[in-house]
Amino acid sequence: xxxxxxxxxxxxxxxxxxxxxxxxxxxxxxxxxxxxxxxxxxxxxxxxxxxxxxxxxxxxxxxxxxxxxxxxxxxxxxxxxxxxxxxxxxxxxxxxxxxxxxxxxxxxxxxxxxxxxxxxxxxxxxxxxxxxxxxxxxxxxxxxxxxxxxxxxxxxxxxxxxxxxxxxxxxxxxxxxxxxxxxxxxxxxxxxxxxxxxxxxxxxxxxxxxxxxxxxxxxxxxxxxxxxxxxxxxxxxxxxxxxxxxxxxxxxxxxxxxxxxxxxxxxxxxxxxxxxxxxxxxxxxxxxxxxxxxxxxxxxxxxxxxxxxxxxxxxxxxxxxxxxxxxxxxxxxxxxxxxxxxxxxxxxxxxxxxxxxxxxxxxxxxxxxxxxxxxxxxxxxxxxxxxxxxxxxxxxxxxxxxxxxxxxxxxxxxxxxxxxxxxxxxxxxxxxxxxxxxxxxxxxxxxxxxxxxxxxxxxxxxxxxxxxxxxxxxxxxxxxxxxxxxxxxxxxxxxxxxxxxxxxxxxxxxxxxxxxxxxxxxxxxxxxxxxxxxxxxxxxxxxxxxxxxxxxxxxxxxxxxxxxxxxxxxxxxxxxxxxxxxxxxxxxxxxxxxxxxxxxxxxxxxxxxxxxxxxxxxxxxxxxxxxxxxxxxxxxxxxxxxxxxxxxxxxxxxxxxxxxxxxxxxxxxxxxxxxxxxxxxxxxxxxxxxxxxxxxxxxxxxxxxxxxxxxxxxxxxxxxxxxxxxxxxxxxxxxxxxxxxxxxxxxxxxxxxxxxxxxxxxxxxxxxxxxx
Length: 772
Hints:
The chain is mainly β. Helix content is 4%, strand content 59%. The two termini are 29 Å apart.
């Protein structure tokens, strides 16, 4: 036992303490009582749980109380009637108990109830060696709970699951090892076990977190849904080798779709999954995934490889395949490497065989190798990059240039004398293409700036020289193979921050007003003979408004004599510094006409850009708004508008609404929701419709049911593919918490389609001990 007295810890050891109810015990002598009253009295209270003095079981005290106690000291103790035996971390109650302290063994009979840490077992008869956890329990009900080990770098954090059930006999075979005969197993709290496993023999090994059963029947709502002569499953959702639950569904392009994955837990940092997939319209496809990870070595790395192979597609009549390999590694201090390889056998592979919009809309599959080194004030990156371009027959696209290789160098020294700051970016790249002009490009851009800043304002003048040189091949007749360009660039960035206290929705907040002016001067240089390898017109947005060049890439440096004026206002919680609401408005003004263009680009004729405005933040409790607006003063109309709203009062309860407009290109509405209905039922839906094209882009609707220890989901999904056609699919899944998922898993699709979607059966605390 332990007592805490005025901050000092006092240890006391009792090997056996025995007490019996006796109403006729004589009172203590008056002198003893008086002496006792003169001493400070410790405040004690009866507790069924004791804090362990150490991890040594042999040094723990044992307490027994009962209506009647007899026996021989240190040899045998017999207790009858309302028996309670307590030891640090465990409590046992019964009608009759015999305890042999030398062997640390007990036998309990009648209404036996054993709690040990988070475990509970009840039954008529128990024989157990406490220290060694060896013995048996006849006709027990059990509830066993363990914290997951999470000893693998590939494993995600997991919540503990409580295994419950009954058996004709339970054998203790050491700490954390149980063998049950004629047993049931479930993670549902009794008495409402909607699903359970019924087995002739069941072994639970919590050291390896593995369960094994023979002659197994999986029961759901007292109906058998699966039988197996042998079953091995993971306790606490731990990784283990074996067959995973099958998935099945249906799509309009592939027919009935059935997948039976086999998982191979090769090592704590390595695993693989092999998944045969049968499609009634196309045939048998083999899918495989291999992962390995070493996060703690001298050269930590991680890898994920995925492959798919469909021999002799019944519809196309040819072999079809795809692969993806990603490897990241730290090769030495400051030096990292990356390999990212992707490929497909044909242009329509993903549109035919995938039901995900992000996959079916792929056009260029990246193939990249990269080395990067970072020093204290500089970085250098060497990479080789090319693509496999998948062509949509109805909308062909151009093949991008290859970079074989590309060398990038950046440097920054903000700590030069007199407050000066130096920045540098440089590049060497060799561009390749099967049909267009090829060549190399070398670029260097040194810059000097003088940042001047106080708590209320900042002013940063900057000057730089952008130097570029080209060595070209396959130029048009009369165009030189060597070209060069030198462009000086000057800019001034300035701003002011003003604050005031406001009261908004009953809260005391700080409002800021932050006007900003940004001036850029770049002289015109004739660049009409320079080819376009990787450049384009940058999207006009708030980030681009405060950049020097209106183009992305280094093939064009736009002439400029312009100023950008903008203002930002924020509402800030002064107690936390958190930003609640942000609004901004800005516009760019030109003092000269545009001279530099890209091929096919229309020359700017206006002296100012469109007006940009944004707003984002929490507008009401649990309600968030994100909006952007681009307005053309010359045309007196909106060019781009995006509005998105979310209402999320709690987890698993969200409504989303959005509208997108890009003049003459995009006009869409997007609605999605997850909402509880009644009695554990949830509705999920998304409706993404193109008003411009008068067609559904992507839509889904479904129902989820949370049964407490199981979840059922059914989801219908329809998707417009890049080939102008559509594919439909149905997903049905039955998830038995802690055992298996049966059917097609729509969770990732729901997360992608419904922002804020929550998995309805996230593990929560289960009050199992009140069930018996």
